[in-house]
Amino acid sequence: MTVHNDPTTTTEHDLVVHDGTLVRWRPADGGAFTGGLVREGLVWSLAGVPGVDGDVLAACLAVRDHGLDFLAEQVTGASADAPVPLEDVEFGSPLTRPDKILCLGLNYADHASEAGFEPPEYPIVFSKFRNSLVGPRDPIVLPRTSTQVDFEGELAVIIGRRAKYVDRADALAHVGAYAVCNDVSARDLQLRTSQWTQGKALDTFAPLGPGLVPAELVGDPQDLLVTTTVSGQVMQRDSTSLMIFDIAETVAYLSSVMTLEPGDVIATGTPAGVGLKQDPPRFLADGDVVEVAIEGIGTIRNPVVAEPRDDDSAGGPPDAP
Question: Is it true that domain 101-306 has CATH number 3.90.850.10?
Fold first, then answer.
């Protein structure tokens, strides 16, 4: 398995954030979230950078057009503030208002098999929404309405250029970045009907991060190892090479049924090993910690907490504007 970037690690058992990652961050002692560039263990603010001005996706596109070194020179030249060490930073979801969050179901043959299905003939597509987005360290909140909350570590694709009716050969040119995500799922709600949205689109059910890694820094996205760990136990570990519908085919297919806009998120499916299919089933519980790591992209590490019984508003995205 190829490792495409040398990692910069915050602290042991915490996030891995690679050089060149574009993050949404603020100082650990508070303040407003803004965009930043990770370089050598430091976060540099993107505020004031021409054509970017704090926008994480715009920074990814600047890397695509001009290269990482050019962006780094712009950042260090434009920043009025000193860079902040990674350990002194709070991370938010790198995207907060995507036009679409599209997800693939049963996109690894082993996962389809463990779920009792044949590999699908066409991509199985469902949606999440902005309310589900949280950052790489934010809590996954167990809703009162479910007792079967599950984990699904996945590679997320971030669209960088508008795509409509693109060919497979050109599809990856429309990808701006990659990230780590967790397609958290309430299985008892999901399986009530043939439509999965009610079990997928709950608050906090789409941790994303640790930032956006520009596509140019990743290399082959079909040669990445995805590992999901729950409270120290490895539950999923497989290569993106085993996707049924690879990223190019997925982008091309989705662009044939809808226009993909810059900033749209595509969660590309999860490998085998989900909690539902363990014996006995291993659903998430209050106090668990779920870590999803993808080579060359980084890690997210989210604690699991029960929704308070005395606050109907609990569970919303912690850093939503």
Answer: yes
